[in-house]
Amino acid sequence: MAELEGLEFGKSDFVLLDEVTMEQFMENLKLRFEKGRIYTYIGEVVVSVNPYREMEIYGKDAIDAYRGRELYENPPHLYAVSDAAYKAMKRRAKDTCIVISGESGAGKTEASKYIMQYIAAITNPGQRAEVESVKNVLLKSNCVLEAFGNAKTNRNDNSSRFGKYMDINFNFNGDPTGGHINNYLLEKSRVVQQQEGERNFHSFYQLLRGGCEETLESLHLENDAALYTYTREGAATAVSSSDDRKLWDATSNNDRTSHKAVMSALEVIGFSKEEITSIYQILAAILLLGNVEFGSEGESVQILGQDTVNHISELTATDPDSVAKGLLFRTVATGGGEVIEKGHTEKDACFGRDAFAKALYERLFGWIVSRINSIIEVKNYNPVLHGKNTVIGVLDIYGFEIFDNNSFEQFCINYCNEKLQQLFIELILQQEQEEYQREGITWQHIDYFNNQIIVDLVEQQHKGILSILDEACLTVGKVTDTVCLDSMDTKLAQHPHYTSRKLSPTDKTMDFKKHFRIRHYAGDVTYSVEGFLDKNKDLLFQDFKRLMYNSSNPVLKEMWPDGQLSITEVTKRPLTAATLFKNSIVALVDKLACKEPYYVRCIKPNEMKSPVLFDDARCQHQVAYLGLLENVMVRRAGFAYRQQYPRFLQRYKMTCEYTWPNHLMATDREAVEAIITQHGFQGDVAYGQTKLFVRTPRTLFTLEQERNTLVPILVLFLQKVWRGALARLRCRRMRAIYTIMGCYKRYKVKAHFWEVERRFVSVRTMPDYGKSVEWPAPPAALAQFHSITTMLHRRWWARQIVKNIPPSDMLEVRAKVAALTSLSGERKDWGVGRAWERDYLSSVRDCPHTSAAFIRVSKELKNKDGYGQVVFSAFCRKMNRFNKSTDRALLVTDKFVYKLEPKKQYKVLKRFPLDSVSELSKPRRFLQTCCQPSVKCLFCFSQFTGLSVTSGADQMVALHTSSQDDVLLCLQQGELCPNQDRVGELVGTLVDHFMRTGGSCSGRLRGESTFRESLQLVIVPPSAEVAPAGADEAAPDDGEGGPAGRSAARAPGRRVVDAARRRVAQDAAVALETVSRKPDVALIRMHVENGIRKSLFPVKVCRSALQLHMRGKPKKVTVETKPGQNVADFKKSKDGFILLVPEK
């Protein structure tokens, strides 16, 4: 706690001093500075002394220690006053502000950054992305504004050369939702001229020393600030000793680091790459403007060095001739409306150049601030939806300045400090004492210096210095700074706080016709009147405004909206710089006055920037003009907290049994007295006419603690009652909902049935049997029913289509269905749209010259081998075992596959049995449970184990055998259609044959296999003979536990068990395509994946190379297109073969 801090550190609150004297005040301040305690309270005001070193009193641990604590619970700190402002804003929904004041170099900018960091750290505990984004922009904006608005002065290495007031908006949860930044009086004269030992704005040096070589080259700059007139003074800050050299190196490194930080901050804030590029192009253009020199030839003025002008025009996206014209001439409108061009003198050209450079930088800085505001502004805010929008304002503005040469800027800055001091006096000293008198509180009046007389000296209408300056600027004719000074001497001669050399001839510290002096609250300041009128006029030729507005760079165009007016349209004289500044400061003071203020008073301990030196005289002067001693007196005699009786009662009535929930006393004041009496705080309060005054924060803190203890209990009680009410309401609603849902679901089910009946009532008479009828969307309860009914309809529809197919066409339909399922859509063209001839070698249309000979040979083979029918026949190109390709004829029957020699009257070269029986030494695993050990399983296997085709349009086929001596061939087209694809027909006929026969030999099955039967398992004893065709397929179950038991119990013989009877026709899905010969009959695609893909004759479609074995060796066959190739042929390759096909 603050008062428990060790006595060796002095008093943590100046209110606790034994005697309120300047000596004791300074002694306590110095002791705490020497002990590393840079913060001290005056009640709720924080006095901060710049330590000029890094302090280990910030960071996450310190933030956690101060979060939610009262002021006096921890040692004095910036975090404590930040938390107090945040709590006041959140608890009482009242706008607050933190005013940071002090002279230049006292640490105001650093204090504002720590305050912003603390507020960002304690808000948004839920880590909401949009709030985090706002916080990041608010924090990063400090880095950007420091780079473009701060500079090194003789009194401060990071002096704010502009005033900044930031409003942070919070929602009802206390999370930041946006903000707004106001900037005041940027010291733009620093762009073109600095005092000895000072620098230009940081941004110039960061660009020159931190920009990469490529960037500087694109901006026509070099990595040396001494090469540019506007930065030469800052680059030449004495490097006469080794210490100075080290300091210069450290500054350069800091500029490089800062440049990277600024670039990163600009990206985080939301500046686009084009906008960032435009910012640095403008900086480069300003630097190059400073290097533009003028020379006179007679009466004309010329620019020396056109290259610089060309670079400026490139950087500003303007015409070089227009830039040169703007620098050398001025467009003037005469009284008669005539427009003439007036050439500049060399002096006027230099003045215009510098004015242009200053205006460019000022507009750039203003645009950056407005761009940040557009990003962080509160968007889509609705008080009804989002609650009250509260604000915490943070004011970081230039401190009081006394330089060797004080000009117009210092005059405005010191006037601003006078206004802020006046606000402090009104809020802390004057209003407080007036309130005590108004409320009837016993009070001893405390005298204090009221600086209203100085404020009036500057801003009073018709008599103040600002009015005299404006009057001089508006006077027609040659009015100089000296004439203006004479006017001030005349009008202000009797003012006690104004003097000049003319009014005080014996004061040799001032010069005649040059200086005047104002006795400010912070001390006497002598101002040089030179340049006052020019700076107040802030003259900029309209030609430059129009030049920038006509730039093709959208950022520059946006900065100069007033450039769209022509010279004849510009008639209104703009307000002077002093008037604009006065208006903005008055608005700022009004904005601060309507908020609850918290103060941070910064003190600069010495002029040497030393962490150990404490200049008593310097510090005493600051304590005096800041009014800190008077503040202590008012605080000791006053009260820390005051509140109206109704609001106090509303907040703390639950802490007293006589006031909760509602009191029965005559007035709210009596109820408040009851609360105070119950807690025993009678000696620490005073009762006013309308308010209760509490002297120490401890009393208020005790009440807050008790309230915080009771609030959860009350909340739980209210939650219990409200939850019960909600539960009962929810129960009634749920019952009603379920009743409505039940009725509605029944209605939806019935409605679905009605709709299905309506749509499908005449389906039997439709040409397509309802295929085109769209099924209604089913309710969720009927999802399974819907899938079953749609499947039943598809089966019925397929059955109707199949019934209409002639028996003569069923063989072709089956083959096409088998081909479609085997190829799985991987082969695009497989002949589905044409009629399949099957036996092409006997077709007179396809083989008119050889069909007769083939018919004769096929009859002979049929009589000899006894096959039933020809499955497929065609010419082909075959690779033999000697890796040579020859023309052959392929004949596939239901028993054998023949290789024929067409050139020798279809001589049979080789015959392959299409079916063979292979014996397995072990039963199948899925039959082990039902087979006796003495029973062997015989499967019907084909000697051909499958076939492979490619996914292309070639006619290559590889027939795989169990002996790994595969057959590779390429089907050839006949004369019927040269471009027919016969691969699909071969695949379909073979697969359909194996499906119908189950891989068994012809005649082994009883009767003709139906389309739904696919595989039969023959189980016979080892000594039994195969029964002839017509034997029983199955026998009734005898109760012996399966087929094995039945085979043991019954007489020996063949027992045929249908182990996998396929329901192929019932699983029909949809129509494939229209059969070419019968367009009105749809070809049914049967779902036979379980019957074909798992059948004894698999088909593989290869997308790249085709794999096979020849004489046990693996081969790979690829397909290539060869120009000039007439017919497809094979060619040997390194690892197999290549099929050369003609180019289409």
TrEMBL record:
Q: Where does ATP bind?
A: G102, E103, S104, G105, A106, G107, K108, T109
Entries under SUPFAM superfamilies matching the protein: P-loop containing nucleoside triphosphate hydrolases (SSF52540)
| Name the UniProt record assigns to this protein | Myosin motor domain-containing protein
Can the keyword Nucleotide-binding be found in this entry's annotation?
yes
Q: Mind naming one GO cellular-component term on file for this protein?
A: plasma membrane
Family that this chain belongs to: Belongs to the TRAFAC class myosin-kinesin ATPase superfamily. Myosin family.
Q: Where is the Myosin motor domain?
A: 9-708
Organism in which the protein naturally occurs: Gambusia affinis (Western mosquitofish)
Using the record, list the residue span of the signal peptide; answer none if the entry has no such feature.
none
